[in-house]
Amino acid sequence: MHDHRRLGRELNLFDTDPLIGSGLPYWLPDGAAVRHALEEYIRREERRAGYRHVYSPVLGKRELYELSGHWAHYRDDMFPPMGLGGEQVVLRPSLCPHHALIHRSRLHSHRELPVRMAELGGMYRSELSGVLGGLTRVRAIHLNDAHIFCTLDQVAGEVREALGMIGRAYRAMGITPARYRLSLPGPGGKYVAAPGTWERATALLIEALDEAGLAREAVEGEAAFYGPKIDVQVTDAAGRESTLSTVQVDLHQPERFDLRHIGADGAKHRTVMVHRSIIGSVERAVAHLVEHHGGAFPAWLAPLQVAILPVTAAELPAAEALARRCLDAELRAEVLGPERGSLGARVRRVRLVPYQVVIGPEEDADDRVAPRLRDGRRLPAMPAGELLARIGALVGAHSPDPWDGGNGLRKVTEGATGVSG
Predict the structure, then answer these.
(1) How many angstroms separate the CA atoms of 365 and 315, rounded?
(2) What's the 3-state SS for the chain?
């Protein structure tokens, strides 16, 4: 079993420092590369799906969260207010109140709906020290968040589209959902008291799940305070379950913020708010990917995609030229020359890198390379330009497979890494 806290430090992905504080990890260059690739992927997919991106402040006045309901139902998980010029401001626990205000800033026609608004933004939770750990429970969270403002009859379709985006993202990341949980309210005062609103929102989520052909398990006590949600659950190697992605129907905050649109009849109608997060928090997503893949990320996510290994110093110029061509092709590459140890030691050092290119006198002479994949398979010799084009296409398509089909590949027994990707 892989523990992302140990692996994350061994692979130089992230670390912590007591002077920064518990639950506040910082990202090292390799970890930042993984995170950046993930963020680029999700922003591109959102643009393709009709989302428009915004930025909003990480602070808000206390009155904002009183209006949204967070202060009444969620303040135990919020940082305390800070005095500022006679006002009280709070680090936001969620992005939804800000997005509601952005949407409310002008009146929309029904012809403009749905409005899909996305942001990969920071939010802050006052987690107790005893529950903090690695990247899974942190105090500063960067959430792949979005809110869809739509009519009631558009809700099920928008939820279904969000579930489709989640499925595609999981395939690209090489992971599988364990189950789809329909999270409902439980007893107690944690939830907004509006039975009719809860029933209506729950029915819309069930409709979307049924239309998508996805089985569900209903669980009480796991809803957001303002509405039910679909939680996409994943499990680690020890069988522990956690939530990665969510889709929520919210009929409460549109009423609190008086979100309306002009209908076909010229009258104002209540707008519905759908919350959705395709990969959840970047921190938790990377933690799960580290543990699931053991650091052998899909090529598009790997911090180092191409490792170039000249056999001797004589091949260094050719290796450096190939590295420059990789960078021009937007591939992350590094030359590990003979000053870094024997060839066998260098091959072991890059065992998690998807593509490993050894350059000896023969390769230096004819600009052909015969690279190996990290699982030990050799690719047929080919011109360096062809190799980079094929790797670039696979990376650009966010393929979880390091090679397309594997025809003509043969297993290498000497120096094989034994790491699956």
Answers:
(1) 10
(2) CCCHHHHHHHCCCEECCCCCCCCCCEECHHHHHHHHHHHHHHHHHHHHCCCEECCCCCEEEHHHHHHHCHHHHHHHHCCCCEEECCEEEEECCCCHHHHHHHHHCCCEEHHHCCEEEEEEEEEECCCCHHHCECCCECCEEEEEEEEEEECHHHHHHHHHHHHHHHHHHHHHHCCCCCEEEEEECCCCCCCCCCHHHHHHHHHHHHHHHHHHCCCCEEEECCCECCECEEEEEEECCCCCEEEEEEEEEECCHHHHCCCEEECCCCCEEECEEEEEECCCEHHHHHHHHHHHHCCCCCCCCCCCCEEEEECCHHHHHHHHHHHHHHHHCCCCEEECCHHHCCHHHHHHHCCCCCEEEEECHHHHHHCEECCEECCCEECCCEEHHHHHHHHHHHHHCCCCCCCCCCCCCEECCCCCCCCCC
Confirm if 395 and 305 have CB atoms less than 8 A apart: yes
410 has pLDDT over 80: no
Please tell me the predicted confidence (pLDDT) of residue 189: 67
The pTM of this model reads 0.90
Task: Categorize the per-residue pLDDT at 416 as very low, low, confident or very high, splitting at 50, 70 and 90.
Answer: very low
Least trusted range by pLDDT, from 328-332, 365-369, 394-398:
365-369
pLDDT of residue 415: 36
Residue 363's pLDDT is: 76
What is the average pLDDT score of the chain? 90
Average pLDDT over residues 268-289: 95
